[in-house]
Amino acid sequence: MRINIIECDELSPELKPEYHSYGTMFKTFFSALDSRIETRFFDALQQQLPPQPKAGEIYLITGSKAAAYEDHAWIKHLKHWVQQAHSNGAALLGLCFGHQLLAAALGGEVSKSSKGWGIGVRELNTTTQSSALLADKNTLKLIYSHQDQVTALPARAEPLLTDEFCPYAAFSLGTTVIAFQGHPEFSVEYTQRLLERRRAEFSPAHFSEAVASLAQQTDAQWLGKRLLRWMQEQTRR
């Protein structure tokens, strides 16, 4: 099975030598769960996107420091591509910025939250609509790092994860679109370094709480296996 990974940012120079790229983190994450996974990388910043997206192919949109509501040419180009891909029945998976980009491109709304940053390991509630993907889970723990949030879902989209801080932390649209605000691909070590880089943006208490939360076991691998199963189902379409 092949995953087409659309990279929407570059890592900071001090993190590149060890972690390489957002796409590499996803490749490492999914390959650890299934060594047969193949990946192709595309550069959204350079408007280099997969040609002729189609049903049966998997397209993953990564995180980014950019905001889905910003007026950059590459973001407009990516939104148009998403609309075409969705119309063609392609399987679309978005994480963090990718989650927000999918929502914005398909009719939802995204904005910077007045509640501030969501950082560290957070446990959110699954919804009644999430049973097909998140069966057997009442809550899901993932690593988070975001200020922006999806504030309104696209028409006919179903929320999958929710809490008071982030009501639309995951959603699905039909059977071909799945999006999560959290980061199953982030390692604890990478997250610690990311938090340290952004330390000035958090209160001391918020920073300490987020770092301490990283000692918790997350559901990243469990979710990764569920997403791989969904991808396999999509390749048979």
Concise overview:
34% of the residues lie in helices and 26% in strands. The protein is of the alpha/beta class.
SSE topology:
Layout: E1 2-7, H1 16-19, H2 22-33, E2 38-43, E3 58-61, H3 73-87, E4 91-95, H4 97-105, E5 109-112, E6 118-126, H5 131-134, E7 139-146, E8 148-152, E9 157-162, E10 170-173, E11 177-180, H6 188-197, H7 204-213, H8 220-235
Parallel strand pairs: 1-2, 1-3, 3-4, 4-11
Antiparallel strand pairs: 5-8, 6-7, 6-9, 9-10, 10-11
How would you describe what is shown here?
Helix 3 links the parallel strand 3 and strand 4. It contains eight helices and eleven strands. It has a single domain, classed as Rossmann fold (3-Layer(aba) Sandwich), CATH 3.40.50.880. Helix 3 crosses helix 4. The chain has 237 residues and is α/β, with parallel strands linked by helices. It holds the Pfam family GATase.
Q: At the first level of CATH, what is the class?
A: Alpha Beta
| Alpha carbon gyration radius | 16 Å
As laid out across the biggest beta sheet, the strand order is 2-1-3-4-11-10-9-6-7
Sketch the major β-sheet. 9 strands, mixed
| SSE sequence, one letter per element | EHHEEHEHEEHEEEEEHHH
Number of helices: 8
Number of DSSP strands? 11
Summing up helix and strand content along with how strands pair, one would put the structural category as alpha/beta
* Average pLDDT metric: 95
Question: How much helicity do the residues have?
Answer: 25-40%
Q: Which shape, going by the Cα principal axes? A: globular
Strand content: 25-35%
Any low-confidence stretches, pLDDT <50, length ≥5?
none
Span of the ends, CA to CA: 13 Å
Keywords: Glutamine amidotransferase, Transferase
Pfam families: GATase
GO molecular function, one term: transferase activity
Domain Glutamine amidotransferase: 79-191
